[in-house]
UniProtKB/TrEMBL annotation:
Name of protein: asparagine--tRNA ligase
NCBIfam families: asnS, PRK03932.1
CDD domains given in the database record: AsxRS_core (cd00776), EcAsnRS_like_N (cd04318)
Similarity comment text for this entry: Belongs to the class-II aminoacyl-tRNA synthetase family.
Domain Aminoacyl-transfer RNA synthetases class-II family profile: 134-458
Gene Ontology terms describing biological process: asparaginyl-tRNA aminoacylation
Iron keyword on record: no
Cited Pfam families: tRNA-synt_2, tRNA_anti-codon
EC numbers: 6.1.1.22
One GO CC term on file: mitochondrion
Length: 466
């Protein structure tokens, strides 16, 4: 039986049932005639209180128990006379599965998150990282639930690719170990560019271009998988390997795109509010006092929507009042908004999730649809308090001639995009999509500050152990 099922039992009828609980001991408190163990099995933040009486035939096992040991306990559930829990387990049999020596790094005290990063193999046993993992799993479930419920098809796009979707040059090159007999070019020189795939190949930065092929065949699709960026940024919001959810919708424009993103984010947040209550209580207590307010407001209120040009005007007015408060005070049309700008909009100005849309075409990717004004594209970013950019998306350029010209303008060779252009040549349709950074969503929902705690095994410059 899982501990969560006992702790969250709907009523008292569970009292008297015999169960076996298996987990890891968090604390042990000995009295003369009995011992209390807190057994945590990872199903919930709190462990189950186990009472082992000295009369037990297997009471000798208790001597082998210390913090971190794994145990199996058979017993009967009873109402707990003590504070802090409704039910406890009166043990009838206890066995130690794995002892835990005294040098166990996770002794009963608060460890810094930096320290725990160096213990990525053990940190899921801590309150914070365990709670993150449970919330993360619930968010993943709710993601599939939302899109499947809306009739989207789930699609896996390749991790190894030849194209740089975002055109930012932040790709990891994929090669084999040096071959025994390296390929050579016509002159006999070693040619490492012509290795396994016969062309340079990279880890994908986004599944979007592949997803478009299926949106233009199946209708609405979504991806949910790893993406990679070789950004040399030691920030609290960037990972070299992160997970992205990328819906792509046929017969959709930028408004449909924002509407879908808003409904999606609201769905996953309300799912977590309903299903991860005790974990969220923990995060509200230790990481973000205003967490419930923030999440409830997100679910209840419409998101703010503002055009980039108007957002720039608001920022200029605000900055003019005290430029010294800003790290990047120069903002004008064409400025790529910095995190401090994004967070001011979402936190100070609108105090809720905020779409900024219709960005200057020069600062956005080649595939975004040109607006009639000739200066902007049908792009949108969703900014949320505490995190900044959570989503980036756009309506895609579906006009063959316009897209070809734009590729050239951006210094890209239309020949490399022949299959992408074919989607515009053969039965082109207006379509739109977006990418949501899953780990940033985890940060937002839990209130933890650093994205390195939002993923089990964070990858960032200088870190690929575990
Ligand atoms: O804004 P981005 O670069 O958009 C795209 O990749 C589009 N192709 C998506 C699409 O339209 N299908 O990235 C999307 C989101 C960002 O808003 C951010 O949340 C997250 O991905 N993201 C990162 N998360 C963690 N670490 C990084 N290095 C990230 N880079 C982007
Ligand atoms: Mg972006």
């Amino acid at each position: 039986t899982r501990v969560r099922a006992i702790l969250e039992a709907p009523d008292e009828t569970i009292v008297g049932s015999e169960v076996v609980v298996k987990g890891w001991v968090r604390t042990k408190r000995g009295q003369k005639t009995f011992t209390f163990l807190e057994v945590n099995d990872g199903s919930s933040l709190k462990g189950l209180q186990v009472v082992a009486g000295a009369e037990l035939p297997s009471y000798g096992e208790v001597d082998r128990v210390s913090t971190g040991a794994s145990v199996a306990v058979r017993g009967v559930i009873q109402e707990s006379p003590g504070q802090g829990q409704r039910f406890e387990l009166k043990a009838s049999e206890i066995s130690v599965l794995g002892e835990c020596p005294g040098d166990y790094p996770l002794q009963k005290k608060r460890h810094s998150l930096e320290f725990l990063r160096g213990m990525a193999h053990l940190r899921p046993r801590t309150n914070t990282i365990g709670a993150v993992a449970r919330v993360r799993s619930a968010l993943a479930f709710a993601t599939h639930q939302f899109f499947q419920g809306e009739g989207f098809q789930y699609l896996q796009t390749p991790l190894i690719t030849a194209s740089d979707c975002e055109g930012a040059g932040e790709m990891f090159r994929v090669t084999t170990l040096p071959p025994a007999s390296p390929p050579t070019d016509d002159a006999g020189a070693v040619d490492f560019a012509k290795d396994f795939f016969g062309r340079p190949a990279y880890l994908t930065v986004s599944g979007q271009l592949s997803a478009e092929t299926h949106a233009c065949a199946l209708g609405d699709v979504y991806t949910f998988g790893p993406t990679f960026r070789a950004e040399n940024s030691q920030t609290t919001r960037h990972l070299a390997e992160f997970n992205m959810i990328e819906p792509e919708m046929a017969f959709a424009d930028l408004i449909d795109d924002m509407d879908n993103a808003e409904a999606f984010v609201k769905h996953v947040v309300s799912h977590v509010l309903q299903n991860c209550r005790s974990d969220l209580d923990f995060f509200a207590g230790f990481y973000d006092k205003g967490l419930f307010d923030k999440l409830q407001r997100l679910v209840d209120q419409p998101f703010a929507r503002i055009e980039y040009t108007a957002a720039v005007k608001l920022l200029q007015e605000e900055i003019a009042m005290d430029p010294s408060q800003w790290q990047f005070p120069d903002v004008s049309f064409g400025t790529d908004l910095q995190t401090e700008h994004e967070r001011w909009l979402a936190e100070k100005k609108f105090n809720t999730a905020t779409f900024v849309y219709n960005y200057p075409r020069t600062i956005k990717a080649f595939y975004m649809r040109d607006n009639e004004d000739g200066a902007t594209v049908a792009a949108m970013d969703l900014l949320v308090p505490g995190v900044g950019e959570l989503i980036g998306g756009s309506q895609r350029e579906e006009r063959l001639g316009v897209l070809e010209a734009k590729l050239r303008e951006f210094g890209l060779d239309p020949k490399d995009y022949w299959w992408y252009l074919d989607l515009r040549k053969y039965g082109s349709v207006p379509h739109a999509g977006y990418g949501l950074g899953f780990e940033r969503l985890v940060c937002y929902v839990t209130g933890i500050d650093n994205i390195r705690e939002a993923i089990a095994f964070p990858r960032y410059p200088g870190s690929a152990e575990f």
